[in-house]
Amino acid sequence: MDERPSHSARCARSPFACVVATCFAAALVMLMASCTGPDRVPIVLGNDLEDGGSPPVFVEAPDSAADAENDELIAYCPSNQCPPGFTTCPDSRFPCDVNLKADLRNCGACGSACPLNSDHEVFACAEGRCEMTCRKDIPGLDCDGVPDNGCETDPLSNENCGACGAKCPDPAKPCVDRAYSDFGCGCLDGKLYCPETADPPCTNASRDDNNCAKCGNACDPAGGEGAAPPPDNMYYGCLGNKCGQLKCAPGFGDCDANPNNGCEESLISNDHCGGCGNICGPGKQCALDMFGTPFCACPTGETFCSLFCMGETCFGACRDLTSDAFNCGGCGLACPSGGAGSSASCTYGSCSTTCESGRADCNGNTQDGCEVNTMSDPFNCGACNVACDAIAGQACVGGRCVVEPCDQIQDDGGLAR
Fold this sequence. Notes:
Blueprint: H1 7-13, H2 15-34, H3 62-70, E1 76-78, E2 86-87, E3 98-99, E4 121-126, E5 129-134, E6 175-177, E7 183-185, E8 192-193, E9 202-203, E10 234-239, E11 242-248, E12 252-253, E13 265-266, E14 285-288, E15 294-297, E16 303-310, E17 313-319, E18 342-347, E19 350-355, E20 359-360, E21 372-373, E22 396-397, E23 400-401, E24 403-405, E25 408-409, E26 415-416
Antiparallel strand pairs: 1-24, 2-3, 4-5, 6-7, 8-9, 10-11, 12-13, 14-15, 16-17, 18-19, 20-21, 22-23, 25-26
């Protein structure tokens, strides 16, 4: 008679052991179920074999093993052969240090230099060919498609007004620079074209004191013969296309709407900064920007730095003294310019030198800047003191030592190519 305690009795004495045994059994059933199916080989336990033999051994499929045997490892060796697009020119410092696709001095071939930038053109080497772009700040147009004569066309012409082929056929509306390289045929509505007396030439003649209602019609600020003296900070000017109208002098405003006491408020004050009632908030003061326009200076974290002063009135801009390389730690404290391959920077109010991409300061001397080109220097390839194989003449291209597959290994251990 089997006197072993029943499953329920064992669980009563040791609940934890019962739980563990139950979970193990369930996991075993799930594992066996997951390994059966049309594409799976079932797991066979030793006591399930009818002949009592050994369980099967699982190995990789024969075709996978065959593929693995056919795979060959490729050995790579140091190389002095330039990758496509790179070469060594007569004035090269290192092997393969010229990128014929992008080098302005050797564009497409050694010694084939692109033209220097000029007042109207900017040149670049792209895919081994010199390409020209017309500048935007000093505009010109390349309308004939011939790079040898640059951007030969004036954008302020009636035949090519701002763009090649853009014509201005109406003589009353010639090509004009409306403002800051905004070229167009004639002035916009409400503006009068006065090229001799207005700058920019398109002006609002309804209030222009020098071109009132028509070009060249300048108003007398004293009001002319018999006019009463103007109130404080006022003069006679152009309003509504008419001269002789009282106007506030620049920098002043009639904030109480009473012309008898003139323009009584300065518009360069904290209570009227740039306009009546425009109050500067706490910690700010009214100042003039570089164009003479009043504004409340400065945002939190910035300091007003004056460029020049006229009496008590100063012109300038807001600067972040913690990061501005021209005002680092204080207004006017410019960081010294970096040497070759570097640029000056300001970090937390202290000047420092930052290396340009592909450059490094390997000698620790800030006087000569970032003197090493880590993109082509085989002794500092990608970083300082990372040397390529000098005996094999291994080149450095793009910051990596050049390698190629080894053809064979000679009996003496040397490399054959």
